[in-house]
Amino acid sequence: MAATLSHKTCTLTILLAFFVYIALATQVTHDGRSILINGERKIILSGSIHYPRSTPEMWPDLIRKAKEGGLDAIETYVFWNAHEPKRRQYDFNGNNDLIRFIKTVQDAGLYAILRIGPYTCAEWNYGGFPVWLHNLPGIELRTDNKVFKDEMQNFTTLIVDMIKEENLFASQGGPIILAQIENEYGNVMSPYGDAGKAYINWCAKMAVAQNIGVPWIMCQQSDAPQPMINTCNGWYCHDFTPNNPNSPKMWTENWTGWFTNWGGKLPHRTAEDVAYAVARFFQTGGTLQNYYMYHGGTNFGRTSGGPYIATSYDYDAPLDEYGNLNQPKWGHLEQLHSVLHSMEKVLTYGDIVTIAMNNLVNVTKYSYNNSSSCFISNDNTTNDATILLGGQKYTIPAWSVSILQDCQKEVYNTAKVNTQTSMMVTKPNEAEEEPRSLAWSWRREQISKNVVQGRGSFAAHGLIEQKAATNDTSDYLWYMTRVNLDKNDIIWSDDMRIRVNSSGHVLHIYVNGQDLGYEYANDYPGYDYGKDDSYGINSFEKKIKLKAGKNVIALLSATVGLKNYGAYFDMVPTGITGPVELLGVRGDETVIKNLTLHTWSYLTGLQGLDRDMLFSERSVHATRWRSSGDFRINTTLTWYKTTFKAPIGTDPVVVDLTGMGKGAAWVNGQSIGRYWPAFVAGEDGCSLDACDYRGQYDNNKCVTNCGKPTQTLYHVPRSFLKDDVNTLVLFEEFGGNPSQVNFRTVTIGGACAKVYEGNSLNLSCNGKPISEVKFASYGDPQGVCDSFGKGSCEGTNDAHAILTKACVGKETCSVDVTEAVFGDASNCSDKAKRLAVEIVC
Fold it and tell me: pTM, whole model, 2 decimals?
């Protein structure tokens, strides 16, 4: 009897668990109009937040702000090289805690989109691939190659099984509604030929076999095999059409700006243009759109790719690198999201009629159950358009979209920004006097006896490519060879030189232990290079002095992020590719001695960086620092250390590394990334005027920071800091002066706005009180933020007094922009009336 009862109890428990599973599960399907959640068509507004580019302590706040900004979902890549840095050795801790990140999204009540890839691009080192892949015998990446496919399937299955174990797919009651396999392969597929086509078909079959219960997507894959949904990436995707009538029109990457490279200017994309692109996409039948990035974050450690991608990955996203609202972009898009959500039914179920007007103007009407919504787009880049619709006149600014509720009242126009522009500033560390209080100690990087004597960990005839030698465990690789000369040697002269051809990004030359200087490539190559293109120093020539007898030539090659994009990008060489030659002069003749095929010894990494780990608080070698005597500045391969107090408050913290050259930085043993303040952007290409949002954007259109260092401020997450004493360690490669280094906080210093009549003005100082209204005028005020002036007409009530009473002393305030509040402005005739305000926080 007991056994029978036990069996019944077990059966009931299983049935109960089954019904709970069914109750919690979310059914995600699709048709040609949209993604369906439990059978209902949905508008999905998503944003990319990459978990390794922030910290677990930042995730809840970032995701909360994304939700408040009107997003339904968070999208992220899965970074293979972060999780499997060594073959079959996995890391899901700290910033790499994918499960914790997805659960944080779930806790916020948002959906998740998981781009497993596992190739990412993402300006991430080596495109997200672990470099040990490159060194597996017989491997070819991203093609019909068994070695690669086995490794890709192993990692994909690992991730899927982890997600399933935590019940995080929507089919299990979790937040993940879509998953992606591969990434932008269609952009580079052609050179792979038939093997590429076979590979993409294999990817689809392998993904389907994972049985995750939600749809799979492939971006930029026009021939994506069913049941994959192909999606669009780019600045504009309104002309995109899926390759199957049963696939909804989805946009996986709406680029909110662009990344920054060392030696480059800072790219920006206006709020008006991003909103225009989104509105055009939904006007033309789009139903899922994702911002890349919504929060860009920071390339900590050695994670940036490129090469030469900067440590900041701000991307001009709606949330800035530190997690602050990037206004007006965040607010302008939030208002658009609200309007689109209010139209969800009509956009996903309604009948669609588009009428082409004159001069690049289109009217699109959605109709459903006696309700309607209209989009009026004006794609003209210079001229506003005035049209009649339903007996009413509408003026649509150039390069904008108006959205009309019930096809009558304009509720949003992409060119009319009615949200504040926040003016962010940095403030000194109030916890101590800066920078005088930073007391520095220092030590030189030890050039080991092995390097001086030319002995490495292994030797080979000829030059070995750097990825093959290091597995990318360090930025640095020593190439060493011995040269025996006597004064009768054919190249012997008083004017001997060494010439090195290198695909490395930086090269240091040592002869007999003497530092002869360095060279680096100084032109960022962009993304338009192919299979056989390399990027590096090319030819570097230096005068040297050799002695009779044995000489040791030691070449230190350094990388600054590995290439992450392009067909066969993994085959682009790094390191010293040769030839390496000695040049001598005999009379009028230059004589060459080729060292390329000599026996070369190799040693990965630097003594202090990779073996002694002087940046680590646990390093037993980190005690021998000099704090007295001659303080070394502007010397290559030098370590600096100081202590500091954490800045007071909760504002984001940055360290200003002005005065330093190139290197890496750690706070309390945690890497805050590479630094390179000495790399200055070019003088030309920046506009002194405000960027004109009209016309197609590209990453060279709206740039700032000409003639200045690409990056001087480096993010120090609050979770890296201690309450008492903190330690900053710098490894300086080129030579710098740390006397100017100091810690600062990033905060809002003020805000301004220029709001159209009929809207509400909302002002905020991000938790701080508004201290002053510097300017306020209602009518036709002129100028831009920080230089407003009164126009030719103005309301009869004192706008400055109204704003002062409503806002000063408060953290937020709201005012309706109407004549009822600001008085009669009939003297403005038919001009569009606006309220201009500037406040101090």
Answer: 0.95
Residue ranges of domains in the chain? 41-326, 348-416, 424-445+610-676+711-746, 455-604, 757-840
Strands (E), 406-440: 409-413, 421-428
> What does the block give as tokens for 304?
């940036």
Q: Write the pLDDT tens digit of every residue in 149-173.
A: 999 999 999 999 999 999 999 999 9
Q: Output the furthest CA–CA distance in the chain (Å, rounded).
A: 109
Predicted pLDDT of residue 529:
37
Q: Is 308 helix (H, G, I), strand (E, B) or coil?
A: coil
Count of CB atoms situated within 10 Å of the CB of 435 = 20
| Residue 710 near residue 304 (C-beta atoms within 8 A) | no
Domain 348-416 fold: Immunoglobulin-like (2.60.40)
pLDDT at 6: 57
> What is the distance between the alpha carbons of residues 217 and 208, in angstroms, rounded to a whole number?
11
Name the helix (H) or strand (E) containing 245: none
- Number of C-beta neighbours around residue 675 at 10 A: 28
Question: What CATH number belongs to 41-326?
Answer: 3.20.20.80
- Positive or negative: CA dihedral 301, 304, 309, 313: negative
For residues 142 and 195, give the distance between their C-alpha atoms in angstroms, rounded to a whole number.
Answer: 9
Averaged confidence pLDDT in the chain: 93
- Per the model's pLDDT, the better-predicted residue between 624 and 207 turns out to be 207
Can you tell me the mean pLDDT for 480-505? 91
**Is 272 known to be catalytic?**
no
Residue 601 exposed, middle or buried by CB count within 10 Å (0-12, 13-18, 19+): buried
Architecture of domain 757-840: Sandwich (2.60)
Choosing from 184, 445, 519, 581, the catalytic residue is 184
834: amino acid identity, one letter = R
The answer to whether residue 556 scores a pLDDT higher than 70 is yes
- pLDDT tens digit sequence for 712-725: 999 999 999 999 99
User: Does this chain's domain 455-604 share its CATH topology with 757-840?
Assistant: yes
**What pLDDT band is residue 253 in, cutting at 50, 70 and 90?**
very high
Reduced to 3 states (helix: H, G, I; strand: E, B; else coil), residue 498 is strand
CA atoms of 150 and 683, how far apart (whole Å): 49
Percent helix / strand / coil, the chain, rounded to 5: 20, 35, 45
pLDDT in tens, 734-771: 999 999 999 999 999 999 999 999 999 999 999 999 99
Per mean pLDDT, which of 58-62, 624-628, 688-692 is the most reliable?
58-62
**Is residue 628 left, alpha or beta, with left meaning phi > 0 and alpha meaning psi from -120 to 50?**
beta
- What confidence score (pLDDT) does residue 468 get? 96
Q: Domain 424-445+610-676+711-746 maps to which CATH number in 2.60.120.260, 3.30.70.3420, 3.40.50.300, 1.10.760.10?
A: 2.60.120.260
- 18-34 as b/e, with b when 16 or more CB fall inside 10 Å? eeeeeeebbebebeebb
Residue 2 has pLDDT above 90, yes or no: no
What is the distance between the alpha carbons of residues 692 and 399, in angstroms, rounded to a whole number? 10
Topology of the domain comprising 455-604: Jelly Rolls (2.60.120)
Task: Please identify which of the residues 253, 465, 757, 838 carries the catalytic annotation.
Answer: 253
For residue 692, which amino acid is it? D
**Residue 253 annotated as catalytic:** yes
Q: Enumerate residues 6+ apart whose C-beta is below 8 A from 703.
A: 265, 266, 267, 268, 685, 686
